[in-house]
Specification:
Blueprint lengths: L3 E8 L15 H21 L5 E4 L7 H14 L2 E4 L7 H7 L11 H19 L5 E3 L5 H10 L5 E5 L5 H6 L37 E4 L7 H4 L9 H6 L4 E3 L2 E3 L1 H12 L7 E7 L15 H20 L4 E3 L1 H11 L7 E6 L8 E7 L2 E6 L5 E6 L25 E2 L16 E8 L2 E4 L7 E6 L2 E6 L2 E5 L2 E12 L4 E8 L8 E9 L14 E4 L2 E4 L6 E4 L4 E5 L4 E7 L3 E8 L2 E12 L2 E11 L2
Parallel strand pairs: 1-2, 1-9, 1-10, 2-3, 4-5, 5-6
Antiparallel strand pairs: 7-8, 11-12, 12-13, 13-14, 14-15, 16-17, 16-23, 18-19, 19-21, 20-21, 21-22, 22-31, 23-30, 24-25, 24-27, 26-29, 27-28, 28-31, 29-30
Helix pairs in contact: 4-5
Length: 600
C-alpha cells in the first residue's frame, strides 16, 4: 500500500449547540449564529477542495433550511448526509421525552430504542432515505446492534472519544460525567458484545466501522487532559498551544499533530487516518475561553487549508464516513490485524516515546522513557458484556476496564514502593537491584509475520560496580492475546551472575478507586490462593503464574524460561497483585510470555 492518508471532515449543524442559549440572548440568536457557523465551516472545507460528512442533529431535522442546504451540498460537493445522535437537547426533544438528559448511551434500553427510531424515522421523512453513517460521543454495543438490525444501511459511526474518562472529569471541575476510557484511538470494527473491543471474527462483527470522536495526541492526551490535544483546532487553542507572531497567530503543534498521524502509515502497512469534527458551538462569535472569535476562525481556516494543501500534493484522500467504512474493510480483511503507533513527543520535543498496540485481544502501551514498561493494558480478550445507562450498573461510566493504568493506579514512581500498576523488569546483583523503569531508551518498530516486534536500544545498569548491558525486545502476536518479552544481556559479565525478574503488577477498574478483589484467584500451576489482602505468595518452579479476575472476565498469565514463578496478593493499603518470572544467569537472557484470556 502506498501511504494512504485518509481524512474525514465531519460537520454538524446544531440549532441548540453545546453552549447556553441565554449567553446569546435567546434561542433565535443562537439558531441564526449556529447556522452561520455551520455554513462557514462548510465553505472552509469546500474552498479547499474537501468533501464533508454532514451529521444532521435531531434539532436540525426540524429546520427546512438546513435540510435544503444539506441536499444542495450533497449534490454540488459530494458531501454525505448522515445522522448524528449528538445534538438531542432542544425544545422538541425535551417536550417529548420529559428529560434534561441528552447522551444516548445514558438512557435505559427502551428509551434508547425510542430515540433511535424517532431520529431515523424523522431523517427518512425529511430526506427519503436512511443514513449510512451516524454517531455520538459514545455508542454502546446495545445501541449499535439495534441500529444495525433496524437500519442496515448504516455502515459507519462515531463511537467513542479516546480517553475521555477521569482525567477529563477532573479538569471539568468533577462535573463531566462521560467516562469512556479504554477504546481504540484509530478506526476499528466494534464487537457485538462491547463496542470498545475490535471484533475478533465475522460472527463478532457488529456490522459497522467505528471511528473515534477526535484524533488525539497519543502521548499528551494519555498523560493529561485530552480535551487540549486533538486535531480539532479549538482543542489546541483551549490548551493554549499557540503563539502570537506580531499579530499573526501561529500553531505549529496543530500541523505537527496532523503529520504525526500521517506518520502512522509507517506502522500500519501504509495506511493512516485523521478526522476533523468540530461543532458550531466551538466557533461562536463571543469567543471561547480566552480566544477571540478572530482566532477561532483563523485556526479553523488554517486547519482546512493544510488539509487542502496535502490533498493537492496527492498526500491526502478526503472521504465521507460511508466511503471510509468501505475503504477500511477493504484494507482490513483480517480481523486480527493490529493498529500500531510508535508515538513521539511533539508537544515538548523530548525523546519520550510511547508504543500503542490494539487488536481484538488487547490494547496496551509501552513507555520507552521507562525502559519499555507496560503502562496501560485493557483485556479485550475478555469481551466484557458491559451495559451502560439508566437501569444498569454503569449509568455514566462506559470505560473499558484496565489491568494496568499508571495514571489512575500509579506506576513505578510511587511514594509507596511496589504499589503501582506496571509491567517491567528488575535487575539484581550482590543484594542490590534496579528497575528498567529507571532506564530511558528509544524503540524501533519492525513488522514480522503474524505480528510486530519492538526493539529497544540497549541500556546499561550498574550494580555494585558491575555494568550490565540489557536489550529489551517485545513481540506482539496478532490475534492471540500474547506478548513475548525478551531481556537479553549483551556484554560479558566475566563469570558473574545476575538475576532478572520480569514482573507484572496489576489491578482492575475504570477509575482511581479499586473495587473489592476477594473474588480473585492467584497461583502458580495448580497451587492457588484466594485473594484476601494478606500479602501471601506462591513461589515455585512451575509452568505458569496466573491471576483470575472474575470482575473483568479475565485471566492473566505469565510464563517463560524461568527458574521460578511467583504469584502474590497485595494488602489493603496496596490493593494490587503481582506475578513474576525470575532467572539467574551469566549470559543470554530471560524470555517470558504474557497472556490474556477470557475467564467466565
Amino acid at each position: 500500500m502506498n501511504n494512504k492518508f485518509v481524512v474525514n471532515v465531519i460537520h454538524r449543524p446544531e440549532l441548540s449547540p453545546e453552549y447556553a442559549e441565554k449567553a446569546l440572548g435567546g434561542a433565535k440568536g443562537v439558531q441564526d449564529e449556529s447556522l452561520g457557523i455551520f455554513l462557514f465551516q462548510q465553505k472552509a472545507a469546500h474552498d479547499n477542495g474537501l468533501k464533508t460528512t454532514i451529521q444532521i442533529t435531531y434539532a436540525s431535522l426540524f429546520s427546512d433550511e438546513i435540510i435544503e442546504i444539506a441536499k444542495k451540498h450533497h449534490d454540488e460537493y459530494g458531501d454525505e448526509i448522515a445522522l448524528s445522535l449528538l445534538g438531542l437537547p432542544c425544545k422538541q426533544f425535551r417536550e417529548k421525552y420529559h428529560t434534561e438528559d441528552f447522551c444516548i448511551w445514558m438512557f435505559d434500553e427502551k428509551t434508547k430504542k425510542e430515540i433511535v427510531d424517532d431520529c431515523f424515522s424523522l431523517f427518512y421523512k425529511k430526506f427519503g432515505f436512511y443514513p449510512q453513517s451516524t454517531g455520538s460521543y459514545f455508542l454502546d454495543a446495545f445501541t449499535i446492534n439495534y441500529i444495525k438490525s433496524k437500519y442496515p444501511t448504516v455502515k459507519c459511526a462515531v463511537a467513542t472519544c479516546w480517553e475521555e474518562g477521569p482525567k477529563a472529569f477532573h479538569t471539568c471541575n468533577n462535573s463531566w460525567y462521560t467516562f469512556m476510557d479504554g477504546g481504540p484511538w484509530n478506526p476499528w470494527i466494534p464487537s457485538k458484545v462491547n463496542s470498545h473491543c475490535p471484533a475478533k471474527d465475522k460472527k463478532d462483527d457488529s456490522g459497522i466501522v467505528a471511528i473515534p470522536h477526535l484524533s488525539r495526541d497519543l502521548m499528551a492526551c494519555f498523560d493529561g487532559n485530552g480535551s487540549n490535544f486533538g486535531t480539532h483546532p479549538q482543542n489546541v487553542l483551549r490548551g493554549m498551544i499557540y503563539y502570537d507572531d506580531n499579530g499573526s497567530y501561529e500553531y505549529p503543534y496543530l500541523y505537527n499533530l496532523v503529520d504525526q498521524y500521517r506518520h502512522l502509515g509507517k506502522y500500519n502497512d501504509g495506511y493512516s487516518y485523521n478526522m476533523m469534527f468540530v461543532g458550531p458551538g466551538w466557533l461562536n462569535k463571543r469567543g471561547r475561553w480566552e480566544a477571540p472569535y478572530e482566532l477561532l476562525e483563523k485556526s479553523y481556516l488554517d486547519g482546512m487549508k493544510y488539509y487542502g494543501e496535502l490533498k493537492k500534493r496527492g498526500e491526502l484522500i478526503d472521504m465521507t464516513m460511508a466511503e471510509f467504512a468501505d475503504f477500511y474493510r477493504e484494507i482490513h480483511p483480517d480481523y486480527s490485524t493490529a493498529e500500531c503507533a510508535l508515538w513521539k513527543d511533539i508537544l515538548y520535543g523530548s525523546d519520550k516515546q510511547y508504543f500503542w498496540y490494539a487488536d481484538p485481544y488487547m490494547r496496551t502501551c509501552l513507555d520507552f522513557n521507562q525502559g519499555g514498561a507496560m503502562i496501560d493494558l485493557r483485556p479485550y480478550a475478555a469481551r466484557i458484556p458491559q451495559k451502560t445507562g439508566i437501569g444498569t450498573e454503569n449509568v455514566y461510566d462506559a470505560s473499558y476496564p484496565y489491568l494496568i493504568q499508571i495514571n489512575y493506579r500509579a506506576g513505578y514512581f510511587t511514594h509507596y514502593a511496589g504499589a503501582g500498576t506496571v509491567k517491567s523488569c528488575k535487575v539484581k546483583y550482590h543484594g542490590t537491584e534496579a528497575d528498567l523503569c529507571l532506564c530511558r531508551t528509544m524503540a524501533k518498530y519492525e513488522k514480522i509475520e503474524g505480528g510486530v516486534k519492538i526493539t529497544a536500544k540497549p541500556v546499561t545498569v550498574t550494580l555494585d560496580g558491575l555494568d550490565i548491558v540489557i536489550q529489551s525486545v517485545f513481540t506482539f502476536i496478532e490475534g492471540t492475546g500474547e506478548v513475548i518479552t525478551e531481556r537479553n544481556i549483551l556484554n560479558d559479565l566475566h563469570g558473574e551472575k545476575v538475576t532478572l525478574e520480569e514482573y507484572f503488577t496489576g489491578a482492575f477498574g475504570t477509575t482511581e478507586y479499586q473495587a473489592d478483589m476477594t473474588d480473585m484467584t492467584l497461583g502458580v500451576d495448580k497451587e492457588k490462593i484466594k485473594y484476601s489482602y494478606l500479602g501471601r505468595k506462591v513461589v515455585k518452579n512451575g509452568k505458569k503464574a496466573f491471576a483470575v479476575i472474575p470482575a473483568v472476565c479475565t485471566e492473566v498469565g505469565l510464563y517463560g524460561e524461568a527458574d521460578e514463578l511467583k504469584a502474590e496478593e497485595g494488602i489493603a493499603f496496596s490493593p494490587v497483585y503481582h506475578l513474576s518470572a525470575t532467572k539467574t544467569l551469566g549470559k543470554g537472557g530471560l524470555k517470558t510470555w504474557l497472556s490474556l484470556t477470557k475467564a467466565n
